[in-house]
């Protein structure tokens, strides 16, 4: 079909309307405000639940001193009065701490010789720290190698806090890995400074934020660029040996990052890991050669890494770190009693430790201390007594750790219940209001007055209560009270409907099969096994829903053109158009969708809980590939996917005539999008071969790696601004035609006086434009009035949505690995097929009401979740793509923390954003599919204007497509509101199920490993999706306002 464009006739009269333009504008504003208020209710519930579920521990500001003994009685070590001694005599005068980030225990473990008949184990990381093995064999009394079992979360900042303070990291602190804050509680660095020790640091700049001003000399290097394997390590080596030789230090700390960054970039099985560990071995060997007799060398890892090179969770590989000790003199061990004093001080401040357990631990410690003192007074005691003391102290330490974990994992059940109640009430509100929105009595104009009044009343009452009781204001509780207050009028209305017969139908408007699939999905959130396997369960549910749609369409005989139940203002309904689709058409769409779902599943990342699963190698960047031909082949495939995506979008826009206009947004789509694709392809070529570039070109490559991503993002931002400025890009051709003036009979005459007049006559104008263009209007010999040809009006809303989604997709694609471009291509193709399948059976009623079925909304939300997993993500911190923070910022962000967090968040929740912004397409696409075949026009009986039309003018009726939505602006706004509420309901019940699962299973073994991360990711995903949904609906309303302005100018020009 040719792109619709046609002359605009002159109009002499219009139908009256009872709605003013200001009221229509208020309807649009009310829809956005209502959806924003619903989102606020969800946010308040999430925040209140989070404040009761993810508690942070209390940090004590107490600091130890040499004058205050660690326990009751005298110091057993007899160190009082000795120079440089505090609680015990100093064994070493100097310490060199080499912290190798992510040094897993098996990286340092000696490589064992394989048994006869067994194949040799050849892994890149085995046996590369040969100096440790040689020292263990040659000097066994001077060396120790331990497996350090660290406490999760295994992120660097939390591990540094644990290493320097001796306390346990908490789960909520994992979010602070972007912004490290100074440690206030007692710590090793502060004690060394108090003792007058000179501390020299070099390496990870996280220490600068944790211990500001604590070092006598420091060499900090940016730590967050996970793609850079050498800058930090080489900077340390530049200062390490000169500092040791100078002797101007007592404690030397070197924090190397190359091993950790190599794991993030390549994984532990890459040859680069062998090179990096060999470099660390040379560093250790050089330090050993320079050590003096009074110096202790400590080589430690802060955490381990998974098989993929990530960390942050509590898997065995992540919590297993290496700890190596060496000194030219013999080593010995001792156990200070500081833990007992910490328990005493903490219990006095918080009063939340169990008294019986605390008393039992104190008795155990007193007994162990007494046994130890007797052993010191009688050194001839047997070794069995010493072992008894060691066992008692170990029991004490384990008990202290367990009681602290239990205390710091204490939940606020009141806040959790309140948050879950607000979430449940808001979900019910979405369900109730989505049914109410299509009724003629829906109060658009006074939509928020009553809820806002109740919210202000609740907040005022809460503030007044705090003022009376002199309690501290809690913003979280204040927001929750305001949210609960604003919900009361709707809950009251729902209670009034409880006794009505229609309440159950209002409460459960979702079709049975869709409701069953939704309940199955929500039930899986209560099982850790299903949460872990959600990446495989979601495509299954999506495929089941697709097959259900195909079977349902065929069974109900709805495989037709969209059902046009046209009801003119002055006539009766128009019969439905002829059938367009057969069962084979829907079957082809269904098979195509299932095939795309299956192909997208090939890009999967295995959870760490399933060791038998193997992650897709296609998720890794091209830079990690070894071998030029394979890398070049994959690069060609990625660029091909990029070009295919661009060509598909341009062909779609060209098919509907959206590339004809000379306006700036259309010119940008024609030339700006290819430039963005070209910049993306060049950037991929640079980053995939940066390490292979000649030395003389590396500066140029680094500069281009900085400029190209920013240029692509800048072009995308410019395109979005142009589109918002002129969202209606219609090609207009003016000239003197020969067509006769077109007249429509109405009770009133004159130009349009309101926005509603325009909204009513726009579909008629568009139909007349199409008829005049195809030569179906009567032509006379007299000179006709000015004739205007216009393009793209039938797809004006969808064209803007598709363009915006394409402009968003390019920057988001830059944040992913190159081969994810294939997933983005599948995403657009899968969305296209699903929209066509849903449009095949969705009825269109004119002039309304319009509605999107629950099947469509549920399938759209499931596809967003499936794309989240297909882009290599998992709802765990270890699977976060940290490399996205350095796209366009290869040298880091300095002290800025929000920008890297924004980039990583955009990478993680790209699928949520794209599907939420594109959600209005579910409403628009059935109207767009109307263009596939013209329809016969029947004369409406009783119409007074029928005498003005000739019989030959009534043969065919060209489809109005999306212009039908403007025939009933009230129903158009109501449909957008209903669609937004349905989408928020589907997302809201997911976050509600996650909250209930986390609260009910809060004592489950996997709560911090599975349920808590799932809740956090679902909560952030909901926030991103809700914001994207508001932006998508606001864009449709912006286009609608621009269409009205365009037609108003056109009609005024005709009148002149």
Question: How many strands appear in the DSSP assignment?
Answer: 14
Query: Beta-strand level of the residues, as a percent range?
Result: 5-15%
Low-confidence stretches: 1-20, 76-81, 114-119, 174-180, 560-580, 735-750, 776-789, 933-956
Average residue-wise pLDDT: 76
Please give the share of residues in helix: 40-55%
In terms of structural class, how would the helical and strand content be classed? alpha/beta
> What sort of overall outline do the alpha carbons produce when their principal axes are compared?
globular
Describe the SSE topology.
Layout: E1 5-7, H1 21-53, E2 94-100, H2 105-108, H3 130-138, E3 143-149, H4 156-165, H5 188-194, E4 199-204, H6 206-210, E5 217-221, H7 231-246, E6 251-256, H8 258-265, H9 271-290, E7 295-300, H10 316-319, E8 320-326, H11 338-350, H12 355-377, H13 383-408, H14 413-436, H15 449-469, H16 475-496, H17 503-507, H18 512-524, H19 528-532, H20 534-556, E9 564-566, H21 583-600, H22 628-655, H23 664-688, H24 698-725, E10 732-736, H25 755-773, E11 786-791, H26 796-814, H27 821-840, E12 844-846, H28 854-870, H29 898-908, H30 910-917, H31 921-928, E13 935-936, E14 956-957, H32 969-1000, H33 1007-1055
Parallel strand pairs: 2-6, 2-7, 4-5, 4-6, 9-12
Antiparallel strand pairs: 1-11, 3-8, 7-8, 10-11, 13-14
Helix pairs in contact: 1-14, 1-16, 1-32, 1-33, 7-9, 8-9, 12-13, 14-16, 14-32, 15-16, 18-20, 18-32, 20-21, 20-27, 20-28, 21-27, 22-23, 22-27, 23-24, 23-26, 24-26, 26-33, 27-28, 27-31, 28-30, 28-32, 30-33, 32-33
